[in-house]
Amino acid sequence: MPWIQLTISAPEKHAPLIGDMLEGNGAMAVTYRDAQDNPIFEPPIGELVYWQETLVTGLFPAETNMQPIIANLQKSSYFKNGLQYKTDQLEDKDWEREWMDNFHPIQFGKRLWVCPSWRDIPDPSAVNIMLDPGMAFGTGTHPTTALCLGWLDGQDLSAKTVVDFGCGSGILAIGALLLGAKRAVGIDIDQQALIASKENAERNGVAEQLEVYLPANQPVLKADVVVANILAGPLQELASVISDYVADDGELVMSGILERQIADVQAAYAEHFDFSPAQIKEGWVMLHAKRKR
Ligand SMILES: C[S@@+](CC[C@H](N)C(=O)[O-])C[C@H]1O[C@@H](n2cnc3c(N)ncnc32)[C@H](O)[C@@H]1O
């Protein structure tokens, strides 16, 4: 399927919100790059802090009418000095190549590395997730995935059962299995994500321990750890479904939340969960909670 790629130059601190706006307008995937390393726009006249700009790129299906989306962005107060944007038509193979060029091994916490399957492993003695995200979300480059991986890295997951709600590429479920979990269940509304998760699990030798499901078929079970990196809206709508997966002494980790959405998400879970202080990275939030006793 060919794609339209919309690339916007945004102030670094607003980049997550711009990415959120692109997703809210139908982007299938959003990536972030430092504008200094990837200059494609002329610096605005008189603008001395160009290096603080981030290139936010949204990938849209080819049939998308981009004009209303661009008009919406132009109205936003983030672009009071003018919206700098560029659209390109992309074939699947170009998108894949773009990912491949921009995706390098990254370390999370003390033990965990995410390594693109086509690159060399920097530290063979580490816990290495070999990953090829395909069209599914989840390479570790997004702050929400990074926050969840960092949390998983700090846990003793030996023999634990983990539910990865919104599994995308399977990165969190596979990371948990490689860190010692005995069983992981990935759930996603996107069939491509389930395929990518299974392929990545094979690549990492943990396919037998990972089951994947569409929500319509999701199993009934209690998990020691539930990670849900989806957006604040679905986290609130699915509060009872997600809560039901958490065992009595289990833990819940949620991300995909913006700072201004913390209170609403916590309120949806407050009856049954006690929250630790929020962890924040580049405007994105990870919430950790334990079931109330
Ligand atoms: C932000 S990505 C997270 C992927 C991966 N877990 C990670 O941490 O990088 C969110 C994923 O949740 C899925 N998703 C969105 N809404 C969902 C829902 N209501 N139920 C299940 N999955 C959902 C999307 O298809 C997407 O793959």
UniProtKB/TrEMBL annotation:
Q: Which GO terms describe its molecular function?
A: protein-lysine N-methyltransferase activity
Q: What is this protein called?
A: Ribosomal protein L11 methyltransferase
For this UniProt record, the keywords arranged alphabetically read as follows: Cytoplasm, Methyltransferase, Ribonucleoprotein, Ribosomal protein, S-adenosyl-L-methionine, Transferase
GO term, biological process aspect, one: methylation
Q: Give the protein's biological function.
A: Methylates ribosomal protein L11.
Question: What does the similarity note say?
Answer: Belongs to the methyltransferase superfamily. PrmA family.
Q: Which organism is it from?
A: Pseudidiomarina woesei
**Where is it located?**
Cytoplasm
Per the record, GO CC terms?
Answer: cytosol; ribosome
